[in-house]
Amino acid sequence: MGGKRKRKNNTQQNAKSPKRARGQRTVHPKPTNQGKNPKEPEICHQPQSLFFQLPREIREMIYREIFIAPTTVHIAYVAGRKRTFRSFLCKLPEEQRIEKDPEKRNCPRYKIKHYNCSPRIKRNDRLQVASCPKPAEMQCTRALAFLRSCRKVYSEAIDMLYQENEFYIENPRTLLELPNYLPQSQLRLFRHLYLESPVYGDYSADDCLERWEEVVGALTRLDRLESLVVIIRPMFGLTWEREGLIKPLKNANLPVLDIASKTQVQMNPVGGLCPGLCPVHKSSSLVSNQG
């Protein structure tokens, strides 16, 4: 019924797919670089885009409105299936952000309360930062989506994103993971950072200080910081606890460093505070911690 199958001409078949000896590797012509790095795709100027027809000064103003946050940005390592890190805007009013006040952040009457700045879920009997945003959160400003829209926007705005914002890292694990996902060229763009240490004391893990030294080692990768506040968290505020957390910081030769101390468990001394211990409250009477 059907027509006969045509037999391929051996001459044409050999011309299309020449045979090679066993063990012989096929040699492909090398691409010509023409003076450009093949790993970095060329950025298209996009003259057809109305946005890029605007003067660079106008685009800079738009970038500043989008990428410069009105308050400190919290970064959290979540290790989710879709997201490795998440970022949140600080929810505390300015007067309660005691880490910005050189006097209040060393006063035992005040506590740092950034715990509620990020949504939490219960995982492994612990409340951890949620790795997936809720639908309502998805409707909020999505600056990073615009940053990833094209290479030209990325090249023009990435420096501003890191240099013009203040970042807060509550979990030291976040800073330890950052160099695994950001190149050194972006790590050195950070200018302003707040960092909390792990809680250290009698009940801490045996490798707590070793892990803290690794975090400080990652901190040295951010070698162009202009302001750095590290909030150490000794368990009971004892001298050996403070020294254990401060020593790696002193040995790191960081470009800038301001150390604040917030004791995890406040121990009320007999007779109250020693006069002059608190730079804000000069009296020796001690009241309950305030926010």
Question: Can you put this structure into words, describing what you see?
Answer:
- The chain has helices spanning 10-16, 56-67, 135-138, 143-147, 151-163, 172-177, 184-187, 208-219, 239-251, and strands at 73-77, 85-89, 120-123, 126-129, 166-169, 192-200, 227-234, 258-261.
- The protein is α/β, with parallel strands linked by helices and 291 residues long.
- The protein has one domain (56-261).
- Strands 2-1-5-6-7-8 form a 6-stranded mixed β-sheet. Strands 3-4 form a two-stranded antiparallel ribbon.
- Helix 8 (208-219) links the parallel strand 6 and strand 7 (227-234).
- The N and C termini lie far apart (91 Å).
- The model is unreliable at 25-38, 270-276 and 283-291 (pLDDT under 50).
- This is DUF7730 domain-containing protein.
- InterPro entries: DUF7730.
- Residues 1-43 are annotated as: Disordered.
- Residues 45-253 form the DUF7730 domain.
